[in-house]
Amino acid sequence: MLIKIICCNKRSVFIDYNKISYNYKLYPGAAKMQKRIPLVLIILAVVALTAYLLYPSMFKQSMPVAQKELLIFCGITMIKPISEIAAIIEQQEQVKVSIIKGGSGNLLKYIRFNQTGDLYLPGSESYIKQANAEGLIMESVHVGYNKAAMMVQKGNPRAIKAELSALTNEDYYVVIGNPDSGSIGKETKKILTAANLFDQVMVNSQEMTTDSKRLIDVLKKGEADLVINWYATSSWAENKPYVDALSIDGQFAEKKRLVMGLLSSSKHPDIASKFMAYAGSEKGRKIFDRYGLYNIH
What CATH number belongs to 69-144+258-290? Predict the structure, then answer.
């Protein structure tokens, strides 16, 4: 008997049943055994063998699917709330979240040059506006606030007054942020320019640094007397015992909106949008506020 099997790719395979059953005659008692074996079992075996020969890949163990990964570019001051939200999204979406931190201006240069990443959170909304104008941002969401303050060593041992003019005093070791590399440097320049003090402070400052972390470090190590930094950094547990914040007059230092942008280069915009939605939600705002980045007076 000739069995015709039509496979899923429309190819036909012919199996001679007589030849298959003939092999059983090589063994003692094969004739009796042959009668007992239902034809359907032989047909099933033939089908399975044919499928294996024609489609061996169907029987191979499938490779594990690579885990999706979000890449976030984050200004240093916002790294704490973003890391906390990242842990939530990783659990919720079964995705890996990687964060690159640095000065907001430097991060934007990296994004512009490499055309990569999913989300961007700088320390000033001006960077988002710039990125949007260059076609690097698809959408954005407001997540918190930032505000600059003058900062001194804990207890203010030099009795420095909460006046911007103190930054021009040659008796103080002054460090400011570089306006070309980070958001705090850019904000410092804006504040001092509005107070007509930028050039004088530039002459009097002993160091220009790239970001808020270094501005905190020079106070904690006793290397500087006075800096301008984002207020939030003075409220963190690891910094609070070492620094005090001095408020800057509101006419010069305003609350700055923190805005997160979805990058045009995003490989996973659906998940990135969910991250943004959480960051901008009431739960997200509470996280930002816990790190001094929402309800700022």
Answer: 3.40.190.10
Q: Do 151 and 215 contact (CB within 8 A), yes or no?
A: yes
In the prediction, which pLDDT does 67 show? 84
| Cβ–Cβ under 8 Å, residues 90 and 63 | no
Contact 125/190 with Cβ under 8 angstroms? Answer: no
- Domain map (residue ranges) of the chain: 2-59, 69-144+258-290, 148-246
Query: What pLDDT, on the 0 to 100 scale, is given for residue 181?
Result: 86
Higher pLDDT, 204 or 28: 204
Q: Are 191 and 148 in contact (CB under 8 A)?
A: yes
Cα 102 from Cα 156, distance rounded (Å):
28
Q: How many CB atoms lie within 10 A of CB 170?
A: 8
CATH number of 148-246: 3.40.190.10
Say if strands 137-146 and 148-153 run parallel, antiparallel, or are unpaired: unpaired
Fold agreement (69-144+258-290, 148-246) = yes
